[in-house]
Design goal:
The chain is of the alpha+beta class. The strands form four sheets. The protein has an eight-stranded antiparallel β-sheet with strand order 1-2-6-7-10-13-14-15, covered by helices on one side. It has a three-stranded antiparallel β-sheet with strand order 3-5-4, with helices on one face. The protein has a two-stranded antiparallel ribbon with strand order 8-9. It is globular and about 60 Å long. The N terminus is likely disordered. The protein binds adenosine-5'-diphosphate (ADP) and magnesium ion.
């Protein structure tokens, strides 16, 4: 943009002290406004797509809508790839191969899967098995899908409990192999893989120059960069029982995951049965209504929200205190809201 020039304009240099001052200040002002003018042409693009059986929501602040669309396509392909490796429900995935070989032998895996399983086992160790990827020995005796609800019998639970033990996940870094000690054991990554996929999605966005974005996959979310310079993205946490939100937080370069008993559940004989299983009892965990975890990456926030849901408020808050960069918001079974020190709810 150019300033009006020539003696005919009221702001011509030398016409008065005031106009002289304005004529020096104005270019400076426009210089400062310059970046804002270009940023204001950025638009917020929102899009929902179903991937890995979950509704994925993208929110991107960009001037380049085409680049965003291309990135969403790339992310869709990446989610399909992750599912084809990590699903415990589909035949032929690396996880299904490991499960098929339980008690019989080990399977060589990629660095990526080895890393994810190592993190899953670490969270299991850290939480004394509240989070345990071998919970999947129970994946067929419980069913929380609408229309096919199923409560496991006592006998089934007793039998499956003997097959849940993260210490019997065999990880050999030298040979990059994974195995399960006993026949009938199984790995299930439902409590961590979605968070990992969200991290990959955001990596793809950042690589493509779309570093101001939110990716939300069900209860797992990464908040990257800013909405506009100097303005944080705002995200809301749903109240587990009431209409509306528990809290709204301004976040930047953080991951946030919520595990709730209201996400996938059914009610039978006045009892609520939901999809987060306490590996100690074999029944849905009952100490919380919802747990929201803030962490440096989504793989971690995902696994920890499931883990703390099982641990309950007391041990959950202790764990959050121990872990750097981790904060937690818990709604306990009575509806009381508890938060770790770094969280302020408005
Ligand atoms: P969502 O998948 O709805 O985001 P969570 O992240 O809390 O919810 O994960 C729940 C999923 O994790 C379950 O659907 C199941 O696949 C798996 N899971 C259930 N109980 C456990 C557990 N104790 N440890 C690890 N994974 C679990
Ligand atoms: Mg989780």
């Amino acid at each position: 943009m150019s300033l009006p020039s020539g003696n005919s304009t009221p702001l011509a240099p030398g016409s008065s002290p005031l106009s002289r001052a304005v004529s020096t200040v104005l270019p400076l002002l426009l210089l400062l406004l310059g970046p804002m003018v270009s940023v204001s042409s950025a638009q917020i693009i929102k899009e929902q797509r179903t991937m890995m059986g979950t509704e994925i929501e993208f929110t991107v602040s960009t001037e380049n809508k085409e680049a965003a669309e291309a990135a969403f396509d790339a992310i869709e392909a990446e989610f399909e790839r992750i599912e084809s490796v990590m699903s415990e429900w589909k035949a032929g995935t690396a996880i299904s191969e490991i499960n098929d070989m339980a008690g019989k032998g080990t399977v060589e895996v990629t660095d990526e899967l080895f890393m994810l399983l190592a993190v899953a086992k670490e969270v299991a160790t850290l939480t004394g098995g509240a989070f345990d990827p071998t919970w999947a020995a129970m994946r067929t005796i419980w069913d929380f899908r609408p229309g096919s609800e199923r409560i496991a019998t006592k006998e089934e639970i007793t039998a499956a409990l003997g097959l849940i033990d993260y210490r019997q996940i065999l990880l050999d870094q030298e040979s990059m192999t994974v195995g399960l000690e006993k026949k009938g054991m199984a790995l299930g990554l439902g409590g961590i893989a979605k968070g990992y996929a969200v991290d990959r999605a955001v990596e793809i966005l950042v690589e493509k120059g779309l570093g101001n974005a939110i990716v939300k996959a069900g209860g797992d979310m990464r908040v990257q960069g800013e909405r506009v310079p100097g303005k944080k993205w705002k995200v809301s946490i749903k109240h587990p029982r009431k209409e509306g939100n528990l809290a709204t937080l301004g976040l930047k370069n953080l991951s946030i995951s919520t595990s709730g008993d209201y996400e996938r559940f059914f009610i039978k004989n006045a009892t609520l049965y939901h999809h987060i299983i306490d590996p100690k009892t074999g029944y849905p965990a009952s100490k919380c209504q919802s747990v929201t975890v803030l962490a440096p990456d989504t793989m971690t926030s995902d696994a920890l929200s499931t883990a703390i849901f099982v641990l309950g408020p007391k041990k959950g808050l202790e764990l959050a205190r121990m872990l750097k960069g981790v904060e937690v918001i818990i709604v306990d079974s009575s509806g009381k809201v508890l938060t770790s020190k770094g969280v302020e709810l408005h």
